[in-house]
Amino acid sequence: MLIYNPAFDKYNCAYRILRILSTLTTKPYRIDTIRIVDFYVLFPHLFSDVRLPPKHLQLKKRLRNLKNNYNEILNPRNLFDRLANLQLPALKSMAAKGMINRDKFNEGLIIREFTTLPEKLDKLIDRDIHEQEICNQIIEVIGEMTMFGRDGLKSRTGLMEFKYDAI
């Protein structure tokens, strides 16, 4: 039996990243920040395991309700590492096509270039932004956080090592 999973579809990955960048403010974000956001857009129920600042506890409670026995992921960090094999080539392709800034990408940063997307794709992104409130909140919360240190994204999510970060 063949089962489709959007997590392992390179085109879906590029679409998710465009959707994420359309939701975030237009400042540069680290590649790893975008990768973490993409992970939680794919698996929003896992965001309830993130150590969030107190102002976001309501969101955490709402996300706990999304958990069920059929979407259990035993090792999120391993899955996050596996997703890099799709996320990084998708980002490289987007830089090559001018969807994200090439120079910033080479510096390890992602910023959306506002090249015209096909109308159909633009409408799909707009629809998802309007219909997926929880994903929007996850994207915005992660977009506010810093990457490094004890209260950074790496530490709060447990998806990446943070002990040796130079702050």
At a glance:
The chain has 167 residues and is mostly helical. The chain has one domain (6-157). Helices cover 54% and strands 2% of the residues.
Provide the descriptors you would attach to this structure in a database record:
two-stranded antiparallel sheet, mainly alpha, 54% helix, 167 residues, single chain, globular, 2 strands
Compute the average pLDDT.
88
Percent in strands: under 5%
Helix count from the secondary structure assignment: 8
For the biggest sheet, the summary is: 2 strands, antiparallel
Using only CA atoms, what is the Rg? Answer: 16 Å
Order of helices and strands: HEHHHHEHHH
Helix content: 40-55%
Beginning-to-end CA distance, first to last residue: 48 Å
Strand order, largest beta sheet: 1-2
Textual characterization of the structure:
The chain has 167 residues and is mostly helical. The protein is built from eight helices and two strands; from the N terminus they run αβααααβααα. Helix 1 (10-23) crosses helix 4, helix 2 packs across helix 4 (76-96) and helix 2 (31-42) runs antiparallel to helix 7 (133-144). The termini are far apart.
Question: Could you outline the blueprint of secondary structure elements for this entry?
Answer:
Blueprint: H1 10-23, E1 29-30, H2 31-42, H3 57-64, H4 76-96, H5 102-106, E2 109-110, H6 119-131, H7 133-144, H8 153-157
Antiparallel strand pairs: 1-2
Helix pairs in contact: 1-2, 1-4, 1-6, 2-4, 2-7
